[in-house]
Amino acid sequence: MNDKPVTNVLIDREDRQSLLEFATTLETIAKKLKEEGSFTMTEGSKETVISPSEHLKVEYSYEIKGEKHSFEIEFDWYTGDKAQSEFSIK
Fold first, then answer.
1. Model pTM greater than 0.85?
2. CA-CA distance, 74 to 56, in Å (whole number)?
């Protein structure tokens, strides 16, 4: 029997934005994370709160394929029993 958790996609969206609009979006996300520890994505009447844990795994990727350039930032975290606990040596 397969014990893999089911993937639940809450947001899957692509937008066209100007560089300034995109930079403003990143600044808003960064400000909310610094001040509140979360940010909310709103699409119509649907709101999705993204509330990462204190410890993240962050990936940066930059690819070029012909004329197309792609830069991605991805961050993952665990909650519940898989959340990273504090570690110390006494």
1. no
2. 10
